[in-house]
Each structure stands twice: as C-alpha cells, then as structure tokens.
Amino acid sequence: MEVVAVIDFETTGLSPAQGDRATEIAAVIVEGGRVVDRYQSLMNAGVRVPAYIEALTGISNAMIRSAPPAGEVMREVSDFIGDIPIVAHNAAFDAKFWDAELARIQRSRTQDFVCSLLLSRRLFPLAPSHRLGALVEYARLPVAGRYHRALADAEMAASLLVRLEEELRLHHQVHEVSVDLLRRI
Fold first, then answer.
1. pTM for this structure?
2. Strand 4-11 versus strand 86-88 pairing type
3. 79-109 tens-digit pLDDT
4. CB atoms within 10 A of CB 84
5. For residues 69 and 96, is the Cβ–Cβ distance under 8 A?
6. CB 165 within 8 A of CB 177
7. What is the β-pairing status of strands 22-31 and 4-11?
8. Is residue 132 a contact partner of residue 147, using CB atoms and an 8 Å limit?
9. Among the four residues 61, 62, 157, 160, which has the most C-beta atoms within 10 Å?
10. Is the predicted pLDDT of residue 164 greater than 90, yes or no?
11. Residue 24 host element (H or E)
C-alpha cells in the first residue's frame, strides 16, 4: 500500500458546525506497514474545554492555554501531511474537524479520507464493537498509550490499518492493497 497519514483529533465536542474546536491533533505517516514519522500538538483555539471532555481526554484548559495557536498547528500538520492520503478511525468525525480547522487558515484538503472504522465493519464483522479500543483488543494490537489522546489513538489506528491490510492479503487473497481499494471497501 502507498504511504498514508493516519490522523486523530481531540476536540471540545462533536461538531465544528456548533462551535466545537480541536484541542489536539496527531498524524503518523505509515510506510511499508510501519510508522515512519509522527506529528503531535495540543492547539489553542480560544475555546473552553468542557469538564466531561477533560475527564475523557485528560486535556485541561491550562494545557490548552499554553498550547500554540490552532492556526499555527494546522499549518504545520497540513504541511507535514501534504497530499498524502489520509486515514482516520471514524473518518466522518475527523474530516469535519480537519476541513473546519483548515478553512480557518484559508486552506482546504486535496485528498479523500479512508475510514478504518468502516473497513473494520467489513473485515471484522464478528468484532464485539468497532470502537478503536475494542478493535485493538479484538485484533490483539499493542496499546500505544492513553485512549482519547491524539498520538496514542493515531498510532493504534495505524496498527489497526496495517492489520486490516494483512486481513485483505491473507484471508481475501488481495495481492495489491491500495488506498483506492480501501476507500471502495
């Protein structure tokens, strides 16, 4: 499979259309079945982190206050990824925030997202759940750190992607796994 960037956002809520903003982003570059580069940063979007989000992620308002501005972070991560295809677990969520945060700096994405959650539903239909943590356990993948932190989640989603690629090769006799094939699945 060609080189891909696996991303994950932590946010203040579920919808940028309702004023929610990103608080952290991570991107890992996967090449040849392994992570070869990483980007991670908290980001200060000037909004308050609700208590329930702080409890879930461990990201506090104090952490955000000392973080670099969201626009600076988005320019850096956008440059880091460039036009590499993007993968995310529950890509509909991450794509909304990616697009909204890029729009704030007058940029837009040039590539479609691949969704590892949708892929897992097709390739692991017997998994008890398709949440990232449940799939990591189901596929016996390494836990990279605290769930609901961007870098750990991006690394675990990258491991899941590699495992899904192996599933296609070993159990479905797909010799050439491409990003286009993953999108179509």
1. 0.96
2. parallel
3. 999 999 999 999 999 999 999 999 999 999 9
4. 18
5. no
6. yes
7. antiparallel
8. yes
9. 157
10. yes
11. strand 22-31
